[in-house]
Sequence to fold (256 residues):
Amino acid sequence: TPAGNSAGNSAGNSAGNSDGNSAGNSDGSSAGNSDGNNDGNNVGKGSTFCSDLGSLRPAVQKLLVMRFFIGVAIMLSRSGIFMLLEYREAWEFNVADKGLIISLFSVVQVVTQLFVVGPVSQRFTERQVITASAALLACAQAACALATNFRVFLCAIAAISVTSAVLKVAMSNVLTGAAGEMNRGEVLGVAGSVMSVCRAGSGLVSGYLVEWYDASAPGLGAAVSMFVVVALSTVLLPEEPLKEGEEEEEEEEEEK
Fold:
């Protein structure tokens, strides 16, 4: 009987230790793998935008730089309009007036995209459309920021709506044409991320500009950014749009 009890206790302790060690090792391995996978997924998500941007062709990367400055100008311009509506006490806007002005901005853009963009794109090259619309948009943004008359302010808003609608469509056409059919979705995704970054930072930048200077500062900053787009368009955009095969041949020659 003592021998039996001793053997039973020994077997029980051995089995218990084995089960406990096995469970501990299993739980530790599962926790370690889970933490490692989570960390890897977080790092992967953080580096997705940079890896997508780095995998694009140099010509597309240059166009995305232009898209960034366009996004900065458009978002600063919108923030500047809201700041002017809020801080120009001489005009005495009420809530209904502000709503009408914002609606005017949107309605003019929709009408422009329906009836203006098509004929303009068919008659002029993409470089001409982007350069001219960027220059006109810069002038309209400066006029809107410096306007002291309400009628001038409304005319400037209408000009901003028309030119920004034409510019955004023309820039999207250039990007999709340069990307080709295989990378079109990837390029549009990166371009959307660029606009999201501009949208997220424009409010903060506008707030600081108004605090440091006055309500016209965001609009003037938008005009400066758009003049940068004008300069880039004359350098980066070809006279005639390139087809996908022609662009690849030019890139191969530059690499050689």
